[in-house]
Every structure is written in C-alpha cells, then in structure tokens.
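We include the entry.

. . .
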Amino acid sequence: MNYLLNKSILKRTKLLLMFCLLTGFVSAQMPENGIPAPTNNNASQCPCIMPDNSVVFQVKAPNAQKVQIDLGKKYDMEKGADGIWSVQTEPIVPGFHYYFLVIDDVPVADPASQSFYGTGKMTSAIDIPEKGADFYAIKDVPHGALSSKYYYSEYTKSWRRLFVYTPPGNDKNTREKYPVVYIQHGGGEDETGWAVQGKTDIILDNLIAEGKAKPMIVVISNGNVRAPGGGFGGYSSKGMAPFKEEMTKNIVPFIDANYRTLADADNRAICGLSMGGGQSFYVGLESSEYFGSVGVFSTGLFGGIRTSGSGFDAEKEIPGLLSESEKFNKNLDLFYISCGEQDMRIEHTKKAIKTMRENGLKVEFNSFPGDHEWQVWRKSLHDFASRVFQ
C-alpha cells in the first residue's frame, strides 16, 4: 500500500514539475513602463502595453525559424539568445483587436492571451484600454445577470443557444415587465460576441445606474442561421429570410414566454453590428409588427465592402422606405445608424443617410473614432441603449 502511494505521489510530483516548466515558457523581463494587457492569461507576462499604446509581444520558440505577430499588419519578431522572440509594434488605437501568432508561416493562437470566437474560429485578442472611457468598466453599481439559455428551433430543427441580460432588480421586482433589445453579432462571430467582447451587461449596468437608460432585457442570439437544405444568405431581403424566420417565429416567442417582457412592438428593438446590422436593417424595417426601434452599426450594406454593382438603393431594398417614408416614421420610435470614423464604410453610410433624410425618413446617426472593431460597437450600444425606449 505504501509503495503504491509513494509511487503515485512521485508520479504526480513529476507531472507538476513538468507543468511548471511548461507554463513558464516566457520568463523575459517585463518592459520598463509596460503594463500587462487586460486580455492576458498571465498578468505578469506580455503582451505589454507601453505608454504610447505600442505593444510588446514575446514568445518562447527556440526551434522556430520565423515568428511574426499578425494584427492586420504583420510584425517580424526578433529572436534572443534565450530563445525568446519579441517585437514592439507601432502605437495601436485603443480597442479590441484580434491577432495571430505566426510561427514558420502557420497562424496560431497566442498562448499568452485569451482567445475569443471572432474570425470564424477561436482567435487571440488584445484589448487596449481607452483613457477616459469607463462606460464598459465594472463599477460599484447594482448589477444585472447574464445567463446562457437553450431553446429549440422549429425552423432549424435543432437546439440553439442565446444569452439573456436581465436588469438589476429583476429577481426582486417580480411583477415588473421590461422592454427588450435583440442584439446581433457580426460575420465570423456568434452569440458569445456581445456577451464577452461587447461587454453588454457591464454597459447596461452602468447606463441604468446613471439613469441614462431604462431597465431592459437584452437578448444576444446566434445570427448564423442556415435555411433547411440551403446555405447562408447574403445582404438582401431574401438572403436574410432564414434569420427573419428564426427571430420572429422562434426567438421572440421564446423570450416572451419565459421572461417578463412588454410584448409589443413599441417595447421591442433590434440592432446589430456589421452582418448583424444588415440583419437588423432588413428584419427590423420589414417587421414593424415586431420591432418599433432599429439600430444599424457599421453595416457593409450601404457600401464599403462591395467591389461591384450599382450601389445601395434604399427603395429597392425596402420598398416604400423612401417613397412612403412617413409610414416608416410613424411605425418607428427610433431608427439609428452608426459607424467608425476610420471604417471604409463611413462615407457610404453618410451618403445613404443623406438620401434617406432628403426623402423624409427620420434617421439618428452617430460616428465614433475607430475602424471596424469592438470599441466602436461598444460605443454604439452605449449610445443606442441611451436613446431607445425613451
């Protein structure tokens, strides 16, 4: 018995020693004045954010021939005598940035950083804080709850997951009913996007505590809906039909049946980023019996990602949107559009809005510093949530 016990302890000790050696794969000194990124797996290691927002990356790969960091722009890393590769990037704009570690031309996730589902697969990311922007920081305020729920879709004939944010006091004020925002992710993402990268619950907690937004439920669903026997659609009413069916016939009824909602169009909103913005545009504007407010963040629908075609025609996409704009104005409590100021979609978006307004359609617009990335979308949600249901 003692022999077997000692043998087991020795085996576990060896495994623990091996684990400690493996997890200490980067032991380079922290750069002076550098701070660990909040998305690091280890707070005492790099990636490290420097005072000018440049970033120092390090990785131990003694047998590699070439190592790079791919942040949209590739940076060649230099190998030290200790086998640790390192590089300092140029200053990077604040916000959330996906990136890859590229070892001998093979892109992989960086074990030093947390991974997120955001490019059609799990991907490393670095979140660079923006000075003075604390609207998505956890504060000493009442907090709501973000929960994962499964529902059965009669359309896809499968179980699907969504996240639901319920406001502070929901579990105590059991007779109170709430308006609902349905918020959609972008292409290459899923329902975890707004729940994790977007910091939806924290943004709503802070807004509600400041009295800048009404207490509301926020539903974060998976917008990747494949038509039975078919593929995913494109940027058109027909292409969005599978998602429209899923949202109106499955998701909305599920939420109304399981949560204390104000179940009418005036108290429902749909919004989303990029692909989700296109989904919100079509489904929201075509379904006034379901949604009284629509938010479109950084969509490529208006242009900026298409290389051919005659451009965006609002009247063609949504018949009556321009010719019968007063009807849409009457049905919509809020039609909101936003875009990043450095996003290649910005000028196309402004042009589309100008045409809509010239034809009498009421559109509220805002832009934020940044490209096609999460800091812009966090700000878009913050702005939209402060306007909706008012």
